[in-house]
Amino acid sequence: MENYNNKGKEEYLMLRDEILHLDSLTNNTINFFYTFIVAYIAFALTQEDTIFIILSYIGIIPPYLIVLNKMNALCKIGAYLNVFHEYEGGDFQWERRHMKYKDKYESNIFRVISWHFPFLCINFLIIVLFIYKTNWKNITITDGIKGIICIILFLIILCKTVKNRNISPRNYIHKWKSLKIK
């Protein structure tokens, strides 16, 4: 039994390190996103063609997908810890206590927008800049196509945000519990 506890503790600590690593990757991705997008939008605003504004999505969509992936991984690990390492009276209670804390002290809207906020803001900024920079007096078919592309990319980010608005360890706890039973 002592050996199992040590292995369990080692796994718990290893997963904690993985959580810290994923959190660091997420923060670095967001920092890169801010740096790149500010520089690119400054460049795009100096250009006449609105295609440069649409190309901003090259700097939005990949980092956003990376952040979503890492946040899902964090939640899977949190749920795993909750199911396999935490029990009433046990030494490790972080996930259980953290969920109780969030339920009591953090509003649902904060949870929804916290990861998505930078990407949502830039998404809305891009559509506003596209509308602002479009020459509405001389609309061409090309401008219409660019507008459709911009709207589609805008909606992709918006749909991803809505779909992933409530990413939480709770989403994965029942899956880990069903695996534990098997």
Any descriptors?
182 residues; mainly alpha; 0% strand; 8 helices
What's the quick description here?
This protein has eight helices and no strands. The protein is mainly alpha-helical and 182 residues long.
Structure overview:
This protein has 182 residues and is mostly helical. 79% of the residues lie in helices and 0% in strands. It has eight helices and no strands. It has helices at residues 2-45, 51-54, 61-84, 94-105, 108-114, 117-133, 141-163, 170-181. Helix 3 packs across helix 8 (170-181) and helix 6 (117-133) packs antiparallel against helix 7.
Give the end-to-end Cα distance, rounded to a whole number of Å: 22 Å
> C-alpha Rg, in Å?
21 Å
Strand content: under 5%
Number of helices: 8
According to DSSP, the number of beta strands is: 0
Unreliable segments of 5+ consecutive residues = none
How would a textbook summarize the main sheet?
none
User: Overall pLDDT, averaged?
Assistant: 85
Q: What class, by secondary structure content? A: mainly alpha
Write the layout of secondary structure elements.
Elements lengths: L1 H44 L5 H4 L6 H24 L9 H12 L2 H7 L2 H17 L7 H23 L6 H12 L1
Helix pairs in contact: 1-3, 1-6, 3-8, 6-7
